[in-house]
Automatic annotation (TrEMBL):
The lineage of its organism: Archaea, Methanobacteriati, Methanobacteriota, Stenosarchaea group, Halobacteria. Keywords: Chaperone, GTP-binding, Hydrolase, Kinase, Nucleotide-binding, Transferase. GO terms for molecular function: GTP binding; GTPase activity; kinase activity. InterPro entries: AAA+_ATPase (IPR003593), GTPase/Isobutyryl-CoA_mutase (IPR052040), GTPase_ArgK (IPR005129), P-loop_NTPase (IPR027417). SMART domains: AAA (SM00382). Residues 237-251 have a biased composition (Acidic residues). Belongs to the SIMIBI class G3E GTPase family. ArgK/MeaB subfamily. Residues 48-173 form the AAA+ ATPase domain. This is LAO/AO transport system kinase. It comes from Halolamina pelagica.
Length: 358
């Protein structure tokens, strides 16, 4: 696609044409030539949408709940974009769940834009593709953007980091799921929802979650600390893009993660969830946390892009020198060593960077 065609596509998207929006997201997902220029042009028009990430284990009812959330927002007169990140088919590379009807309550509503994105076997890069798709929806003018992921592993954690508010769904009686939350997703959740709350074991799951959140906020809860005061614990929203803790003043207000109950199929509890999402959105604006999160996201995005681009340059240089296997054989034959190979491969790149500095 030439520059004129890219400009026309961007203008059509900004004019509210859904076909242009769909084309841009397809280019982003497939990493087609020119997609970076398109996303760059859209950047000035972003920063207005409220982005909600919904994650949790398969079977927790995420799609049904997202459907109900979208309908509630539409009833309030807001426009909605939904990105559902599905696992890849090992045969076609397409989204396994993409063909089934996911938004039954919103079929035919042009102000609800639904898009299923496939991992295509590269979950690491999908977080960047998802972030770019969110930018397209934001520039298009969507008021609320919901990013739904299948699963709750590290890859999904990376994806939902694109969101302002993260909702983690857990189904009743899923003791393994609750324990799994300790593996990393507990710290990024702003709201925890026990869906299918009409099932047996819901109250126990709620209690388990509340206990885990208490332990997350108070690491000394299980210790006999006597008169010792509990140490300050950084707010989970202030964990930076590389996993470190950002500075926080002692008197800064915390957002206390909540545990809610819903029955998405009937819509029970969705009103309270919407109200709590509104509360979190308002809190982020009042405290400046939305801007802080945005800076963290941009920093992480820049790092990821730099690493990916540098890796591509390194692969090109490796191919020019005969490929990684040939170098490994030379190392195995004791003709050279890994450090020397690394220096040789990076040398031309390093020289170019230093010349640019001068």
């Amino acid at each position: 696609m030439n520059a004129a065609a890219e400009t026309e596509l961007v203008e059509e998207l900004l004019d509210g044409k859904h076909r242009a929006l769909a084309r841009v997201i397809s280019k982003v997902e497939n990493r087609e030539p020119g997609y970076r220029d398109i996303v760059s042009r859209l950047h000035d028009h972003t920063g207005h949408a409220d982005v909600i990430g919904v994650t949790g284990s398969p079977g927790a009812g995420k799609s049904t709940l997202v459907d109900k959330l979208a309908k509630q927002y539409r009833d309030r007169g807001e426009t909605v974009g939904v990105i559902a990140v599905d696992p890849s088919s090992p045969y076609t590379g397409g989204a396994v769940l993409g063909d089934r009807i996911r938004m039954a309550s919103n079929v035919g509503d042009m102000d609800v834009f639904f898009r299923s994105m496939s991992a295509r076997g590269t979950l690491g890069g999908l977080s960047t593709a998802t972030a770019d798709a969110v930018k397209a929806l934001d520039a298009f003018g969507k008021d609320r953007i919901i990013v739904e992921t299948v699963g709750a592993g590290q890859n999904e954690v990376d994806i939902v980091r694109t969101a302002d508010t993260v909702v983690v769904l857990v189904q009743p009686g899923s003791g393994d799921d609750v324990q799994m939350l300790k593996a990393g997703i507990l710290e990024i959740g702003d709201l925890f929802v026990v869906n299918k709350a009409d099932m047996d074991g819901a109250s126990r799951t709620v209690a388990d979650l509340e206990e885990m959140l208490h332990m997350e906020r108070d690491p000394t809860a299980k210790l006999n600390t006597g008169s010792f005061e509990k140490p300050d614990h950084p707010d989970h929203d202030e964990i930076d893009a590389d996993g470190g803790d950002a500075d926080e003043s002692d008197d800064e207000e915390h957002w206390e993660p909540m545990v809610l109950e819903t029955v998405a199929k009937s819509g029970e509890g969705v009103d309270e969830l919407i109200a709590t999402l509104d509360d979190h959105s308002a809190w982020m604006d009042e405290t400046g946390r939305r801007e802080a999160k945005a800076r963290q996201r941009y920093a992480a995005e820049i790092r990821q892009l730099l690493r990916a681009d540098a890796a591509d340059l390194i692969d090109e240089e490796l191919d020019r020198r005969g490929g990684i296997e040939a170098m490994a054989e030379r190392v195995q034959a004791r003709e050279t060593d890994p450090y020397t190979v690394a220096d040789e491969v990076l040398g031309p790149i390093e020289d170019c960077v230093r010349q640019q500095r001068e």
